[in-house]
Amino acid sequence: MQPSSQRPRPLPPEFFDKPSLQLAVALLGKVVMRRVQGEWLGCRIIETEAYYLNEKASHSSLGRTPAREAMFMPAGTIYMYYSRGKPSLNVSAHGAGNAVLIKSGVAWRTDPQALALMREGLGRDKPADKICSGQTLLAEALHLQVEDWRGKKFDPEQFYIGDDGHQPEQIIQTTRLGIAPQRDAHLPYRFVDAAFARQATQNPIRRTTVEGQDYGVLSYDEALKVETQHG
């Protein structure tokens, strides 16, 4: 996917001041931008997961600690953590302890120079269409380090989430990945841009999944109106 001639416009701080579910949907189609060695790299967000303080899968439900403080800070604060020793990118939402995980994306630039820089961040080769297909792949491809950004605001000159006018047409809503059954695994708080389902961490539309049971397909406007299902 080649970008337009101009970089995506940085999202204003108030954009992030939404409930986690609505922010998770609104972030689909936006672009995580990162300046690396003087070049702007980017991953268009195609998959997100919403988390709330009062549901068991959220890190914030385990209590307030220095490492988790970003989740309790104003909406739009960067929360990064290690997943199996590799970085993951989240952003705080409206309400203390609430956040959205940036789950996967597709490369905003696919020219050889950009892909080479992204593979340098990964430390290994990866097909262009899968270079951001996972939360740690996305963060590594953009050369993001936990200690550099956790608890900070986005910087429009170095690292930010931007808007280039793209909006998904259909959204797939399903359950989050890697959540233990006793930690509210049943909650359908994962959202995928249907046009990029095959590039998601795990394609929600498979032979073993059934629409209406394992996932739902919504218009963008319908997805923005999804309500929480926890107590």
TrEMBL record:
Similarity field: Belongs to the DNA glycosylase MPG family.
EC number: 3.2.2.-
GO molecular function, one term: DNA binding
Organism: Sulfurivirga caldicuralii
Gene3D superfamilies cross-referenced by the UniProt entry: Methylpurine-DNA glycosylase (MPG)
Alphabetized PANTHER family for the sequence: DNA-3-METHYLADENINE GLYCOSYLASE
Name by which UniProt lists this protein: Putative 3-methyladenine DNA glycosylase
UniProt keyword DNA damage, yes or no: yes
Source taxonomy: Bacteria, Pseudomonadati, Pseudomonadota, Gammaproteobacteria, Thiotrichales
A GO BP annotation: base-excision repair
The protein's enzyme class: hydrolase
Keywords for the protein's UniProt record, in alphabetical order: DNA damage, DNA repair, Hydrolase
Record-linked InterPro entries: Formyl_transferase-like_C_sf (IPR011034), MPG (IPR003180), MPG_sf (IPR036995)
